[in-house]
Amino acid sequence: QAYLSYSNVAALTHLARKPGWDITRTLDNVKIWTHEEGAVLSFKVEMQVKVPSHVAFSLLSDFRLRQRWDRHFLTCEVLQAVSDEEKIYHVTAPPATGHKPRDFVILVSQRQPCKPQEPYMVAVRSVTLRAVPPSPEFCRSEILCAGFQIHSSGGSSCTVCYFNQVTAGVMPYLAANLSGSSKSIEDTALECIKFLE
């Protein structure tokens, strides 16, 4: 478990630092970037939020609050509180056209910064839990690496960056968005900002 937690946070840090991000869309307070490497597509959504970074961190690290702003989350329950900083959740998501609803078993690792210039982190990856085997009513999907980095930009505001490394399982949701107007990603980002503020 310690290794999984460490590698979860390390993978998000590594993804955030990769060179070669291309900006695909800019709104007033949202920027969307993509990064392609072989068959893996990653995207980054950068949001300017008018709340202190520690407030954004506490709201984003509790995934049970995610349904309030992310319509891709139908249900979310804590399966196991591994420690103060690690929780395992079971999440269900609505079906993409012509598919079964999807579900995920994810490890969420939260970290406060050790130094002032470092971001708060909420890292996410799929894990296997014997107690929750795949169920026939859902299509069990996998998150390789996702999560939030929250950078303070002064006392009462912060920059929230959401990262996701996209696998084939998540592609049906994103293919249309990324090729078109990135509308769903954009709408979700604006809902997130509204929720945090």
UniProtKB/TrEMBL annotation:
GO molecular function, one term: lipid binding
GO CC annotation terms, alphabetical: cytoplasm
UniProt cross-references to Gene3D superfamilies, sorted A to Z: 3.30.530.20
Chain ranges of the START domain: 16-190
InterPro entries for this protein: START-like_dom_sf (IPR023393), START_lipid-bd_dom (IPR002913), START_lipid_transfer (IPR051213)
The protein, known as: ACO12 thioesterase
Organism: Dryoscopus gambensis
